[in-house]
Design brief:
The protein is mainly beta. 6% of the residues lie in helices and 43% in strands. It has one domain (24-322): 6 Propeller (Neuraminidase). A hairpin with a 5-residue loop joins strand 11 and strand 12 (158-162).
Length: 324
């Protein structure tokens, strides 16, 4: 009798979620090797979709809200928790502004939201999620061309992967104070997507793509810069199979997405072996793109923006557990 009641309650709750258009699915771990053979232990625990969430590129927590950059709509999706409570959008058109394909998100040293305005060729800053405090910075010498990755270090530097200029830059405020361009003596920077500032270093998911004006190369890699002034780069993980997208660094653990392969892979710094975390086109979500970590709360998320060739695939995001 009790089991029957529990089954009924579960069915009613699940139907209710579907009725409201929210899909929260529990999934099993994905692993290509047993835990005893692999130091990187990752378990995907939830898959999230919402009918009004379209092509999420990146996700972050800001002012106790989840904020998602929607790649193709020029909007930010905002919700209170991972049940999508109080889901809404901020559309810059409401304040006579625009976002030309927002890509990645970060928080400034003075606690404002920074948005890489990828195809709008700028970085956007807002103080509130209604667009209050809107500022725009377009870079120098030349201006930004498809700025993607953005992160902030503990010294207050804002780093930007200026993708079509094939460079990494940093500055101190939204007027470009103390603007610096990484020398990149070995010309290893190709097309940067996500950046991570962590433990005194800057990490980048970096690809060599057939685009005019960027540094040549083959495949992709994860790169690390520990001394900006040196102009030298350390290649952490070469990934010849496909262009890389989003990435996450937690201690020596590195997770990153593949564009064409639509997979998430993981590895350990200093070890050449890669592990498949999410198989191709996981749960039909398409291309993995941005990643967000909050280790203190055990919160690890990855966005998938769907598929360019399938306009009906709007993507979603996953949550996973990262073992010690």
């Amino acid at each position: 009798m009790i089991k029957s009641i529990l089954r009924l309650c579960y069915s009613v709750c699940w139907v209710g979620l579907l009725f409201f258009g929210v899909s929260i699915q529990h999934t099993k771990a994905q692993s290509t090797t047993s835990p005893s053979q692999n130091e990187l232990q990752v378990q995907i625990t939830h898959t999230y979709r919402h009918p009004e969430l379209k092509n999420p590129a990146d996700i972050i927590r800001y002012k106790n809200k989840f904020v998602v950059a929607e790649l193709n709509t020029g909007r930010l999706a905002i919700f209170d928790d991972l049940k999508f409570y109080n889901f809404r959008h901020f559309d810059p058109k409401s304040i006579n502004k625009s976002l030309g394909s927002p890509h990645f998100l970060s928080i400034s040293p003075w606690n404002t939201l920074l948005i890489s305005n990828g195809w709008g060729q700028s970085i956007i800053e807002i103080k509130e999620l209604d667009g209050t405090g809107w500022k725009e910075f377009s870079g120098f010498d030349p201006g930004f061309r498809a700025p993607h990755g953005i992160c902030v270090d503990t010294d207050g530097w804002i780093y930007v992967g200026d993708s079509l200029n094939s460079r990494l830059v940093r500055f101190k405020d939204m007027q470009g104070k103390d603007w610096q361009v990484f020398a990149d003596h070995d010309k290893k920077i190709g097309y940067i997507r996500e950046l991570v500032c962590r433990e005194g270093a800057v990490w980048a998911s970096n690809s060599y793509e057939q685009r005019e004006g960027i540094n040549p190369g083959v495949g992709a890699n994860i790169i690390k810069i520990t001394d900006f002034a040196s102009g030298r780069i350390q290649e952490i993980l070469p990934t010849p199979q496909s262009n890389t997208t989003g990435m996450m660094v937690v201690d020596q653990k590195i997770l990153f997405g593949f564009f064409a392969l639509t997979t998430i892979m993981g590895g350990i710094e200093g070890k050449p072996t890669l592990q498949e975390i999410a198989p191709p086109n996981y749960q039909g979500l398409g291309v993995p793109y941005g990643m967000f970590s909050w280790p203190d709360e055990g919160l690890y998320l990855a966005t998938f923006f769907g598929q360019f060739e399938d306009k009906n695939n709007l993507g979603g995001f996953i949550r996973f557990h990262l073992g010690q």
